[in-house]
Amino acid sequence: MPLVTFGELTVDLQRKKIKNLHISVLPPDGRVRVSAPISLSDTAIRMAVVRRLVWIRQQQAQFQAQPRQSEREMCSGETHYLWGRGYRLDVVLVDRTAEVKLNGGWIRMKVPPHYDTVQRETVLNQWYRGILKQRLPKLMAKWQTEMKVEASFVGIKRMKTKWGSCNPQSSRIWINLELVKKPPECLEFIVVHELVHLHERKHNERFIGLMNMYLPNWREHRAKLNKMPLAYNHWGY
Ligand SMILES: [Zn+2]
Q1: Could you tell me the distance, in angstroms and rounded to a whole number, from the CA of residue 204 to the centre of ligand 1?
Q2: Most buried pick, 137, 183, 184, 203, via CB within 10 A?
Q3: Do 190 and 182 meet the contact criterion of CB atoms below 8 Å apart?
Q4: Ligand 1 centroid to 191 CA: how many Å?
Q5: Would residue 233 count as lying in a domain?
Q6: Which domain covers residue 52, as residue numbers?
Q7: pTM (2 d.p.)
Q8: What CATH number is attached to the domain comprising 128?
Q9: Are 145 and 57 members of one domain?
Q10: Cα(118) to centroid of ligand 1, in Å?
Q11: How remote is the CA of residue 196 from the centroid of ligand 1, in Å?
Q12: Within a domain: 232
């Protein structure tokens, strides 16, 4: 991706078959990406970026101000989150199959001694996935009935820049595994957000109207999502 500098600002410039120029400030460090229509002149792009400079700086400042989780090493004593609550990790080495259990304020992880950080992380993520997988169908069923829509597929995966995604054409929805670490109402907010896309593809006034109707306090949930410590991702809605 070509890097272009505008004064002190360095941006990734992508030329695409799109109608309008789009600027995004990305996690975790506030990298700026500009997607521009192929035919737009360099001058026009420069002017558009300069016009949004204050906004870009504000976004970047927000990233810097946010509490950020330190690198995980998957060792005893670390704090890991489940549904918005912090738990201490307790790693026990065993000569058996790995397993994870919640025990009071602890997440107890039993792993074979040869497991490294990545393998331990995989074990923990499988546990997280199981928990999210348990809660998701109920939530989906409730809101699909309420909103009279039906997703053809709902999957869980780790995503770096989105909490969820929806393809309105195929009605396929993806939910970010990281949501299992946030307060439950954040998951509900994302579920409703993605399902609203089955009614309205764009984030326009109609979309916001539907959000207000189904989940009147969605802005509070969004704020909560933004306030939680960042793992590697940031809310981009
Ligand atoms: Zn959306």
Answers
A1: 10
A2: 183
A3: no
A4: 10
A5: no
A6: 3-65
A7: 0.70
A8: 3.30.2010.10
A9: no
A10: 31
A11: 8
A12: no
